[in-house]
């Protein structure tokens, strides 16, 4: 067993961001209520609970206390799928909903209690898609609750892009049910307009020898708070959870990950990277990994890195690895927050490279390894373009 | 002919909430094709001179002028100075994670030359320069200075010198931390650039060792924030035999740098 807390504060960094490293505590008991589909099982948060302490509740626009009510002008959902994929819109009573995980906080439970119809996308067994399934969630300015299910049959292979744009107050749960031997890559892009609020939970349940890759890309919105969660239905499953965020002035972007190693001989690898700039840019990263006593042979690693580009931004990065068995292959975590430092800038500029170009080089370099993980060319290009836009804005 | 003229340069630095004058009136002219060695004890301000010329924000110029071919260097930003033809090989090159050497070199060459070098000839140019510095081709794919050994960092600096072809090259303690083999390779690189006759070289060093490989035309002794004695190569021999003691203790700058001078 190797638990590494690598460089919580990088040498030479004078970051204005802050780092909080939690003492080990039980993942389950840190939540203020047990998981439930019913919003009534959760008290209205007051903000001091472990799972809410970083979140500005007043900016949730009522998603947390029942005052946000769906008004029919929330979001427009369009699903574009290649042949062989079954796309359905179903009612609340459909048996396929809620199989990958249970809401863990009041907002996710609110979404589950309030949605009217759900989208179910099924890739039948042994179907290998060559084009991605694209689910566009476009905010129309109102309040909406949603539920989506992506289910892959055994040995199916698919890439699914969840693309969030526009303006909305939106809470939703997304279930990913990955059949035995199947391979699912999900790219969830939060490219909201600046006023949007988005909260929700991504639940993945990974079948025997199945592979799940999630790439969460968060750029826009006033407040985005997501829970990517993974559990294993059988042995041999593998999860790769990647994330990129670019947190701008005034934005709150929170990613709370949980990998539940509840099954022997499964793997997980978590890597999230964020860049921050501007006053009151706030990024929160929580990485909870639990290796249960029965999960022998587990191999897991999680990493979060933050690049603080200007003064006034704040990062809270909390990796938390809880190990109940020593019979594992490996376990580790790392968190580092560093500043784009003046020495790097000086070095590049001393080679004739103008300041904005130097920043571009460093930020692109910082994100490069994760951008490559997306594997969907138009999304990669859009992402790089958005990074450049954000950087241009900071220079101007 | 390119000329760097430094006149009565005074530089301060902020340290421990106090302003400290480090350079106290430096006068020096470096012409194209010439090599000047600046030698001095630790803390004499040699590196401050190098970094001030390159425009490091830590240093404040309080008076004096620096002209490159008559252009006011001090009015230029760091990148403008580099594009005007100044090059600083750093004593402690900075790691830039996520940026590959090849990407960095090409971006830099594009900036300094004013246009992107043609890919075909560029690849050949870089490959050739790397081979001459005994650098493995895999080097280009590594991140700038990340995990480089001391010798690799210095070779990488000289690689940039060869590719960017500046008018004036300032080499700040390029010899420090190098073993004899690495010193020879790096010196050969510097000499190749000097042989073009198109570069003025300002070689800053604590030791005379590098001067066996890179022969200076002029040697200056730096102490207490300015040049206290200038001469030909024979001055280096004198320093080799006698050290800096005379300049630190008995010289006109006695006590000015007692703190650093003792190091």
UniProtKB/TrEMBL annotation, chain A:
Q: Which InterPro entries match?
A: Fe-S_cluster_assembly_SufBD, SUF_FeS_clus_asmbl_SufBD_core, SUF_FeS_clus_asmbl_SufBD_sf, SUF_FeS_clus_asmbl_SufD
Q: Which residues form the SUF system FeS cluster assembly SufBD core domain?
A: 139-366
Alphabetized SUPFAM superfamilies for the sequence: Stabilizer of iron transporter SufD (SSF101960)
Pfam family name, one? SUFBD_core
Similarity annotation: Belongs to the iron-sulfur cluster assembly SufBD family.
Name the record gives this protein: Fe-S cluster assembly protein SufD
Where is the organism placed in the taxonomic lineage, from the top? Bacteria, Bacillati, Actinomycetota, Actinomycetes, Kitasatosporales
TrEMBL record, chain B:
Q: Which UniProt keywords apply?
A: ATP-binding, Nucleotide-binding
Q: Which residues form the ABC transporter domain?
A: 4-249
Tagged with keyword Ribosomal protein = no
One Pfam family here: ABC_tran
- InterPro entries in the cross-refs: AAA+_ATPase (IPR003593), ABC_transporter-like_ATP-bd (IPR003439), FeS-cluster_ATPase_SufC (IPR010230), P-loop_NTPase (IPR027417)
Q: What is stated as this protein's family in its record? A: Belongs to the ABC transporter superfamily. Ycf16 family.
Q: Which PANTHER family match?
A: ABC TRANSPORTER I FAMILY MEMBER 6, CHLOROPLASTIC (PTHR43204)
Q: What is this protein called?
A: Fe-S cluster assembly ATPase SufC
Per the UniProt entry, what species is this protein from, by scientific name?
Streptomyces macrolidinus
